[in-house]
């Protein structure tokens, strides 16, 4: 387990806000707020967590500590959340890769998607297909043609872990195109990107964000296509997968990052935390920090709206896992 801690010195909360908190939360306010992240420090999800953590801490009257807990497709961090005291002192900045897909693809994971409650979205991003700069393919159809030709070694692709959304989307792409490539799982996006740039792997599916956009703009890797319904302003010359002749049936999956708590948490406390999360995500400094890494805070959700969003996305991802024919390890 890779563990990185960083504390934020934050101001206290007002007396009225403190009075509104349950006694257990008020008594624990001297203890830090732990914000768990399943990705290594320096990655985009980590940047989102560090963008919102100070505001969450202010809302709860605590110093906020971001902990990067990697491994097992994010299930180690997810289990940490479920095992923590349900007093509002631990939050999870997570994604469906950890909460929905890990239990579908790893036999050792015992929790269920329904064990988590989504409080709000920090970001929701379309996906793109990226490749090493010297790969002799400049779009999805050329990649498919290259894979069908074969070569001295099989093509390989990276993902942020077995069972991650990026793994399943790539497997769905390979299946629909009738091609093969070796899966190389990583504990996070940064080491995978280093191997992509060095040529150790050939391609990957990742979100569209400022960091990856800068790597493409600097010529350190290239984008072969986007999985959105329309072309994107960040990559205006990159065709959508729908425009492909050889592998059009992939859909438009996206990756969200949100603030999660255990579903078994007290309803009143969940509602109070939801109000803190909504206020934090609506603040100008959080919005600016999320935009700085190429994201955008989605419109606020009520708790029932967040529950419906999470349930609908869970069903879509379960269908994706089935279509990709990925068997649990």
Question: What distinguishing features does this structure have?
Answer:
329 residues; alpha/beta; ten-stranded mixed sheet; 12 helices; 10 strands; 41% helix; 19% strand; disordered N terminus
- Outline the biggest β-sheet: 10 strands, mixed
Q: What's the number of extended β-strand segments?
A: 10
On the 0 to 100 scale, the average pLDDT is 89
- Weakly predicted, low-confidence segments: 1-28
Report the span from N to C terminus.
19 Å
Structure characterization notes:
- Strands 1, 2, 3, 4, 5, 6, 7, 8, 9 and 10 form a ten-stranded mixed β-sheet that branches.
- The chain has helices at 15-20, 23-27, 44-60, 75-83, 96-105, 140-149, 165-177, 189-198, 210-217, 267-281, 284-292, 303-324; strands at residues 5-8, 33-37, 64-68, 90-94, 116-131, 156-159, 182-185, 203-207, 222-226, 254-262.
- Helix 7 (165-177) links the parallel strand 6 and strand 7 (182-185).
- Helix 3 (44-60) crosses helix 10 (267-281), helix 5 (96-105) crosses helix 12 (303-324) and helix 7 packs across helix 12.
- 41% of the residues lie in helices and 19% in strands.
- It contains twelve helices and ten strands.
- The longest helix has 22 residues, at 303-324.
- The chain is an alpha/beta fold and 329 residues long.
Task: Explain briefly what this protein structure is.
The chain has 329 residues and is an alpha/beta fold. The chain contains twelve helices and ten strands.
């Amino acid at each position: 387990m890779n563990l990185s801690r960083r504390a934020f010195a934050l101001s206290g909360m007002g007396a009225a806000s403190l009075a509104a908190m349950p006694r257990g939360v008020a008594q624990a306010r001297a203890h830090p707020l732990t914000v768990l992240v399943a990705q290594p420090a320096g990655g985009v999800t980590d940047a989102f967590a560090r963008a919102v953590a100070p505001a969450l801490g202010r809302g709860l009257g605590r110093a906020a500590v971001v902990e990067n807990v990697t491994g097992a497709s994010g299930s180690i961090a997810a289990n940490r959340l479920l095992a923590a005291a349900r007093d509002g002192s631990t939050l999870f900045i997570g994604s469906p890769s950890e909460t929905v897909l890990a239990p579908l693809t790893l036999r050792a994971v015992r929790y269920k998607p329904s064990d988590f409650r989504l409080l709000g979205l920090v970001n929701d991003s379309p996906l793109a297909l990226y490749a090493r700069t010297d790969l002799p393919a400049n779009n999805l159809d050329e990649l498919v043609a290259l894979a069908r030709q074969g070569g001295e070694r099989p093509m390989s692709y990276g993902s942020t872990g077995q069972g991650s959304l990026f793994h399943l989307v790539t497997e769905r792409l390979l299946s629909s195109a009738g091609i093969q490539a070796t899966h190389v799982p990583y504990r996070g996006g940064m080491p995978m990107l280093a191997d992509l740039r060095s040529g150790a792997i050939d391609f990957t599916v990742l979100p569209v964000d400022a960091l990856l956009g800068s790597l493409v703009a600097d010529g350190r890797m290239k984008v072969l296509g986007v999985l959105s319904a329309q072309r994107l302003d960040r990559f205006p010359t990159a065709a959508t997968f729908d425009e492909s002749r050889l592998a059009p049936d992939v859909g438009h999956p996206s990756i969200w990052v949100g603030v999660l708590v255990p579903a078994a948490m007290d309803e009143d406390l969940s509602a109070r935390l939801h109000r803190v999360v909504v206020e934090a995500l609506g603040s100008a400094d959080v919005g600016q920090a999320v935009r700085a890494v190429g994201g955008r805070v989605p419109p606020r959700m009520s708790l029932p709206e967040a529950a419906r969003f999470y349930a609908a996305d869970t069903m879509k991802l379960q269908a994706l896992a089935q279509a990709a024919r990925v068997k649990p390890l």
